[in-house]
Design a protein that fits this description.
CATH topology: TIM Barrel
Strand order of the largest sheet: 6-9-10-11-12-13
Largest sheet: 6 strands, parallel
Oligomer: single chain
Shape: globular
Distance between the termini: 17 Å
CATH superfamily: Metal-dependent hydrolases
Bound molecules: zinc ion
Helix content: 40-55%
Length: 428
């Protein structure tokens, strides 16, 4: 396998309908506005919104009704389009399905009788690993272009405990140290993976080997594997919980372990997406300024501040802030600008442009940013955000083609986005 011929999609999901917390999912695809009057207006226009997005929503539900294995088969078929940039063609694909921990205590639901309860990430993990194994058995030798799914584990430290300090019985009952030791240590098959120089070969060769056992009787023969960790502040994870000492101790342990073992983390970092609880607090937790505190202390932490602040942030940065910052206009609070600063400053900080690629003009805006900030070209990664991107995109092949056929970004930058940068983020 020659590394430079691999096309990477660093941000996508392979959820089926049973995996997301449906409460969060419903809030994502219908507007939630907490101001009373606006909330009522939003409630009234929701059916119209649904109607205008009917085909996109059905398209998404059709994909999510499939099992993970079937979903991956569908992606591999879509990727049989020529993956060509200039006269360079990719002959293999790596995708990193990001699992998400939807565990969250939903405090206040006065309007319903049977309250939503925290949702375990375990069934999702089993389904994903089993789905990858099924897909691999059926399709790895089918003569089509190879596509390797290398999953990221969904984690929320709030459901974990540290040093045996279990705070809420039956809730935070996963021991964080053991979890990280088990999946991100040296015992996957025979290889020394985290930290390890053969990470790329070991993890890719392990693809599809899962034998159905999350708790194998022989711990030296662990067949599950993860390429990294996915965090989601909108679903309750707080990257820098200054007012909660116990939680701070846990996140500090997580960052130190990930920095020491070079475990890549992808974190949702735009003002869109899933938001549970109070919207304002969810956005505060998600804002990239939180990660300034983290990166100041853990410079070696490999982190992808995903979505580059979102489509509007990218436009605003390219066409307003980048121009006005020269004129001394203050731009404190811009998500995209904060991310641009962090990825410029910290060697191991990255971003991806997943989901946004669908919108007309986003790649042109990105080309503007790259022209003005060439020092961040090595930090921006290509991603699709499939399947949730189907709310705005027709399909996976179409989304991929928009990137490949774009004329604004140079071939060299494109190749960095879909190969060199993600390879560095994952394997370096
Ligand atoms: Zn996503």
């Amino acid at each position: 396998m020659s590394g430079e011929k691999i096309f990477y999609d660093i941000h996508l999901h392979a959820f089926d309908l049973s995996h997301p917390c449906l409460y969060a999912f419903a809030r994502r695809i219908t507007p939630v506005i907490e101001t009373p009057l606006l909330g009522e207006i939003a409630g009234a226009i929701t059916p119209l919104l649904w109607l205008s997005k009917k085909n996109e929503i059905l398209n998404l539900l059709s994909v999510m009704e499939r099992g993970v294995g079937e979903m991956l088969t569908l992606l591999q078929k879509d990727l049989q389009i020529p993956l060509r940039i200039g006269d360079f063609e990719y002959d293999e694909v790596v995708i990193t399905p990001l699992m998400m921990d939807f565990w969250y205590t939903l405090a206040d639901q006065p309007h319903i009788n049977y309250k939503f309860i925290p949702k375990s990430v375990v069934p999702q993990t089993l389904d994903t690993l089993n789905g990858i194994a099924d897909y691999w058995k059926q399709n790895s030798t089918n003569g089509l272009k190879k596509m390797r799914p290398l999953p990221f584990m969904g984690l929320n430290t709030q459901r974990c405990h540290l040093n045996g300090q279990k705070v809420i019985p039956d809730v935070n009952d996963t021991k964080l140290e053991s979890l990280l030791d088990k999946y991100f240590n040296s015992n996957i098959a025979k290889g020394n993976i985290y930290p390890g120089t053969n990470k790329f070969a070991n993890i890719s060769n392990n693809c599809g080997r899962f034998n159905g056992e999350l708790e194998p009787s022989d711990p030296t023969n662990l067949t599950n594997y993860f390429a990294g960790i996915k965090l989601y502040p909108g679903l309750g994870f707080d990257p820098w919980p200054t007012n909660d000492d116990a939680e701070m101790e846990k996140v500090a342990y997580l960052y130190k372990t990930c920095a020491d073992r070079q475990i890549p983390i992808t974190v949702h970092c735009s003002d869109g997406g899933y938001k549970i609880g109070n919207i304002k607090q969810a956005e505060d937790r998600t804002h990239p300024r939180k990660w300034k505190h983290v990166l100041e202390r853990y410079e070696n932490l490999k982190i992808n501040l995903a979505h580059f602040g979102g489509r509007e942030g990218i436009f605003d940065y390219a066409y307003y802030r980048l121009i006005n910052s020269d004129a001394g206009v203050s731009s404190a609070g811009s998500w995209t600008e904060t991310i641009a600063e962090l990825i410029a400053k910290y060697e191991n900080a990255y971003t991806d442009i997943s989901y946004a690629g669908h919108y007309d003009g986003v790649y042109a805006a990105l080309a503007k940013i790259l022209a003005k900030k060439p020092n961040i070209a090595g930090k921006i990664m290509y991603g699709s955000d499939f399947s949730i991107n189907l709310l705005d995109s027709f399909g996976y092949a179409e989304y991929t083609k928009q990137f490949l056929h774009d004329k604004n970004i140079s071939d060299n930058h494109k190749r960095m986005m879909c190969n060199a940068n993600p390879a560095k983020f994952l394997w370096k």
